[in-house]
Each structure stands twice: as C-alpha cells, then as structure tokens.
Amino acid sequence: MRYSATHINEYNMVYRLDAVDAYENKLVKRIEVLSIRSEDSFNLPYIKLVEVGERKAKLEIDIQDKKQV
Prior knowledge:
By secondary structure, this protein is mainly β. It is 9% helix and 22% strand.
C-alpha cells in the first residue's frame, strides 16, 4: 500500500458546508427555521481596569439598568 500526502488524482473530495454557505453556493433553494427560542440574557455586570496612572485609574463598567429590562 502506498500513501502520499499530495495525491496526483483527487477522488471523492468531501466538503463541509453550513446552511448559509450552501445557500450562497446555490446548492439549496431556501433555508427554513423550525423554531426560535428566546432565552434570558446571562450577561453579568463587570468592571475592567483599563489604565492605571499616578493617583487615578481608568475603569470600564458595564451594568444593566432597570430601564433596559
């Protein structure tokens, strides 16, 4: 048995496409979505230290206000 990483003749090439790639290559006519499920946001507030200077620091703060719920 002979093995080569670079074959001269390429037989039975396998390609992996997702639904959007198949649609863009016109291999399927349309994409149907069975259902859409909405889930609660699991984003948590955080504080990120961006820069530290002499006697001051720059922070990035992300919070969720009650108005945004």
